[in-house]
Amino acid sequence: MIRALLVLGLFASVPAPAQQPATRFVTVDVYATTGGRPLAAWQIELNCDPSQAKIVGVEGAGPKPPYYDPAALDGGRIILADFSTEASLPSGRVLVARVHFQETGSPVYTPTLMAAAAPGGERLEPKIDLVRAGGK
Amino acid sequence: MRMRMLAGLALVTLTLWGCSLASEEDAQRKTPSRSDSLQPPRSTPPYLEPPQSRLYPSPDPVVRRDSPSNPPPPAPTLAPAPEDLKPEPSVMRVEEEKEKPRRKSVVDDEELLVIGRERHRVQEPDGQAGPGWGEDELLRGCSLHTRVQDRIIPLPLEHTDVKAQLTFATGSVTVTQHYHNPYNGKIEAVYVFPLPDDAAVRDFILQIGDRRIRGIIRERDEATRIYLDARRQGHVASLLTQERPNVFTQRVANIEPGKRIDVSITYIHTLRYQEGQFTFVYPMVVGPRYNPAGFNDGVGAIPAGTVGAPHQKTDVPYLRPDQIAATDIRFEVAIEAGAEIGEITSPTHAIREARPAPGRALVTLSPNDRIPNRDFVLRYKVVGDKISAGFAVHPDETGGTFALMIHPPDSLKGVPRSAREMIFVIDCSGSMSGRPLEVAKRALVKCLKRLEADDSFQILEFSDHVTVFNRSPLAASVENVQRGIAFTEALAAGGGTEMQEVVRMALDYPVAPGRRRIVSFMTDGFIGNDREVVAFAAAHLGSARIFSFGVGSSVNRYLLEALARVGRGVSTFITLDESTEIAAEELYKRIEHPALVDLRVDWGGTTVVDVQPSPLPDLYLGRPVTVYGRFKGAAPSRVRITGHAGDRPFESAILVDQEGGGARMAALPTLWARTKITGLYDALFASGDSREISGEIRALSLRYGLLSEYTAFVAVDSLTRTAGEFGTTVAQPVSVPDGVHYSTTVERK
């Protein structure tokens, strides 16, 4: 379980291409690079300007999509979290979530790592980066 | 006034609720897989079984089955491209555990009806509501229905899987609908289906192959606009909306030919508990509802394939009796009772059960009983005189949420009864034709025979109009009761269900001095204006109490429960195969003794707010109530309950926190929010239309991620895009419920 909700100030931003059609549906893949440590639990906040994009779905890399906090769901903001008790956990650059957006402008997506942990609850500070796809 | 302490009055028990520090999701992950010891029986899909007469009103002997010797004919096609009928693969599905039951029984000489396509405007959404992007747009465009004479019909919804985890007094249920496109053009599937009226729908997953996309809760208008935009752009998308507390619409756009899309919905709710017995109910079909002239905001019934404008805001298409939808349902109910489980029964279905431990059981449907045409009702007892427990908490930063089950004091039995004025209201509309009315009449006769000499009674029967047994209530003399029985036995069904007038008549009679008025509505509740009737009853209740009596295989439980709730009574349900003796006994058990009324709870110094339901309901013998609330600081440890029955005051001080905080239950905030939304709906409809109340429902729903009439779940697969426009809208038709006549409901003959 995630024991602390610390904003670690780890940011990465991906600008969307400008001059797109009025609306388009795109995905933003969220990666966590753990440096070789197995990733057991994580919580990430993803932000964008709600006038530019709306979240329309959350997908994960595994069989279950990550969870989101509906109370925190506000326009272009979402807090995602997931954990696993599997014996075999991913490490390295891990795709933790794929967020589906309806873009109406040229949003900038900003992730914030809130917490991450290795098995046993040991705190991790993975690097978070985003890859945007789609919208053609 | 001197308050008399009566020992052992209100019993607040201690451990009914689930005790888990982990989240429910966590618990679900730890649920044993199907490969564990709790294996459901292997079976053959029901459409490969011999039809049962009770399930197939007009079984057709030429219904074909898949087999190598009897290959399936071509699949239906979409106009305007009727060429190239694509044959379906001929596969016999027998190994159910390995392969999901799939409909493959498609027959020849089928007739296809495609509703004329109306070109709709293509407009780029700019985030603003406008023409072409509202809910009306969902009703536009073309529709396709298959019309097949006396045959199994291929439709998008193939199969429904229901997995329920019943833990103490709470049920967590995941419903997975398996959609398939059997046509050779792209379709949008639309399915109107029921869920329990108190379901807190809080999760929604769209599955495309191995990928699962969790839906997002949004304001309904916003979600609709997103869905329409995704549909237009060719993305697979799904939209889940709520039309009534127990009626929902699922839309799945851009299903390509031959492709499968699954949608999973998860809800939680509180199980009904009375007389030491839990009851789990899962509704399978929305009954065909009647709407008064001029009313178009309800849930309507139309023949499958109806061409033209919508009749009601939500229309349910029904198959004719000679048509069979090859859609089935499978159940897997896991019970974790926390104590030894006694007898498990279902008055509605043949079930199989496995008992891996005294407190655990797994219940599945018999392979021959998987047609979704009536409620699934499951009852089980927990061994022991009284379940131990009834207080649970979920702590948060400022305090937490609690649930408290309050048992009625046994000493209510000692309170003398008062003379009653019984008003029996019996529904004789077309939907009650046949077995439902026969069951209702038998139950009413039983009730009449139970009247005491000092009671009085009246009978009102209604359909298009109201007929009264006598101009005013009569004394329950032997002769009068015999007259009442004769009147009842002569009743016949037919016509519409004009319920509001009979509600007015039942409640507006001047009450005779010194009597308690009890109004009992015996009905299947198949009306589209149910909310309006509930609001009307609440406004006219006066000193009367309403005891609703649901009769049938697929009762509109929202109406029956809501009438009892606003009428400060209780509801009773009887299926078509149950004993009317028991049902009548059930009613009289509740009204034999005065209820504990004006219930108040002193929380012992703890700051407790937002207790739901509000106001607290009356307490009837054998019928505990559960209240939810929020507290600040430490959880309440002692509560004092006061009230009175008749002219006798009651008071009881109860220790509720004997084990340091009560049981932990992660779902409590959701259950609290859902209970509060129920109360807000009652207030909203009673007030006409209040922006303040609807705004509160909307805010609560969004905060707790709950589906309501003001919110919706939407999920879009942005990754892939299908070619062309969204195709043809296929409304999933359903069978009329078991025991209900198509001719007197959908056709209104």
Short characterization:
The complex is a heterodimer of chains A (136) and B (749). With 136 residues, chain A is an all-beta fold.
Q: Tell me, briefly, the overall form of chain A.
A: elongated
Query: Average pLDDT of chain B, to the nearest integer?
Result: 80
Let me know the average pLDDT of chain A.
84
First-last Cα distance of chain A: 39 Å
- The arrangement of helices and strands of chain A along the chain is EEEEEEEEE
**Topology, number of strands of chain B:** 40
Number of helices of chain B: 11
| Largest sheet, strands/sense/barrel of chain A | 5 strands, antiparallel
Structural class based on helices, strands and sheet pairing of chain B: alpha+beta
Which key terms come to mind for this protein?
heterodimer; A: 136 residues; Immunoglobulin-like; five-stranded antiparallel beta sheet; 46% strand; B: 749 residues; alpha+beta; Rossmann fold; 3 domains; eight-stranded mixed beta sheet; globular
SSE inventory with pairings:
The complex is a heterodimer of chains A (136) and B (749).
Chain A (H helix, E strand, L loop, with lengths): L13 E2 L8 E10 L7 E7 L5 E7 L7 E2 L9 E6 L9 E11 L4 E10 L9 E8 L2
Antiparallel strand pairs in A: 1-8, 2-7, 2-9, 3-6, 3-8, 4-7, 5-6
Chain B lengths: L10 E2 L11 H7 L80 E5 L27 E5 L4 E2 L3 E11 L2 E11 L6 E8 L5 E9 L2 E4 L1 E4 H14 L3 E8 L2 E9 L4 E11 L1 E3 L2 E6 L16 E5 L10 E5 L5 E2 L2 E9 L4 E5 L5 E7 L2 E6 L10 E7 L8 E5 L3 E9 L12 E8 L7 H15 L6 E7 L3 E3 L5 E2 L2 H12 L9 H10 L7 E8 L6 H10 L5 E7 L5 H10 L4 E4 L5 H12 L5 E6 L4 E6 L12 E8 L5 E8 L2 E8 L7 E2 L3 H19 L4 H14 L6 E6 L11 E4 L10 H4 L4
Parallel strand pairs in B: 3-40, 4-18, 5-19, 7-40, 16-17, 24-38, 26-27, 26-30, 30-31, 31-32
Antiparallel strand pairs in B: 1-25, 2-3, 5-6, 6-13, 7-12, 8-9, 8-13, 10-39, 11-12, 11-39, 14-15, 15-23, 19-22, 20-23, 21-22, 24-25, 25-35, 27-28, 27-29, 33-36, 34-35, 36-37
